[in-house]
Amino acid sequence: MDVQANLQSIQQDILEVCQRVNRNPKEVNIIGVTKYVTIERAMQLIDAGVHQLGENRLEGFMEKYNALSSNEVKWHFIGSLQSRKVKDLIDKIDYIHSLDRKSLAKEINKRATKTISCFVQVNVSGEDSKHGLDSKEVHTFIEQLQDFNQIRVVGLMTMAPFVEDENIIRNSFRTLRLLRDEIKEKKMEHAPCNYLSMGMSNDYRIAIEEGATHIRIGSKLVGSM
Ligand SMILES: *Cc1c(COP(=O)(O)O)cnc(C)c1O
After folding, report:
1. How far apart, in Å, do the first and last CA atoms of the chain sit?
2. Where would I find the beta strands (DSSP E) of 25-146?
3. Which residues carry this modification: N6-(pyridoxal phosphate)lysine (predicted)?
4. What DSSP element (H or E) covers 88?
5. Mean pLDDT for all residues in the chain
6. How far, in Å, are 1, 12, 120 from residue 143 at the CA level?
7. Ligand 1 atom 4, closest CA
8. Three-state SS for 117?
């Protein structure tokens, strides 16, 4: 596993796609998802120049945080988050990608000692198995968040359905972008909503074509064991 080579190949893809769809490649942030791998492997990622790391479980996050936080790292929590665990990580993370209910917002707001940048997670495809708000609920939910002054809605996040059909994947990314545009258009102070967290190892090219600003890459970058 050559993390450096994997990173270069992904960066090359970002350049190629951005050129093709006329986007600035600097808008696309790579979040290195380290949930499958060891601290050593995660360290290789930092050495290769990836300074935004993502974890989806509290235990894995704490392990990586304790070992690696002396490095310059921005920490993204990308998994579903139980309210009772918020207090353990809230002062350590920089971004939460999975804000999807009011009770969680309330807990974040109560525990945070600084403003937390949040992505609201949307279940665009409507699959039962997925976390996230229904698209129809997003406007009202984000409006309600203005009462929580420690929460800043920086963007929307989704996971595409696990299907072969590229059109279905593309459609879910596009739907998220249009929703983001609507929210952004409202110019709410607590919800600038500039960002789109979408795209993983198998679908990041499509996500970038559709406007992703934060791609969350695990296996293609660091492997999966
Ligand atoms: C694991 C995970 C990823 C990365 O998955 P890969 O397919 O390995 O790139 C991205 N986003 C979330 C929410 C994840 O849980």
Report:
1. 10
2. 29-33, 52-55, 74-77, 95-99, 116-121
3. 35
4. helix 86-89
5. 96
6. 45, 38, 12
7. 218
8. strand
pTM over 0.90: yes
pLDDT (average), residues 34-45: 96
**To test the ligand 1 pocket, which listed residue (57, 77, 78) has its Cβ within 8 A of the most ligand atoms?**
78
Q: Determine whether the shortest distance from the Cβ of 216 to ligand 1 is under 6 A.
A: yes
- Contact predicate 186/2, CB 8 Å: no
Q: What is the number of the ligand 1 atom nearest to the C-alpha of 202?
A: 7
Write the pLDDT tens digit of every residue in 64-120: 999 999 999 999 999 999 999 999 999 999 999 999 999 999 999 999 999 999 999
Measure the CA–CA gap between 217 and 195, rounded to whole angstroms: 16
How close is the Cα of 30 to the center of ligand 1, in Å?
Answer: 12
Question: Can you tell me which residue has the tokens 């080579």?
Answer: 5
Is 169 near ligand 1, meaning CB less than 6 Å away? Answer: no
Residue entry with tokens 């979408």: 198
Burial of residue 82, with CB atoms counted within 10 A of its CB: 0-12 exposed, 13-18 middle, 19 or more buried: exposed
Reply yes or no on whether the pLDDT at 158 is more than 80: yes
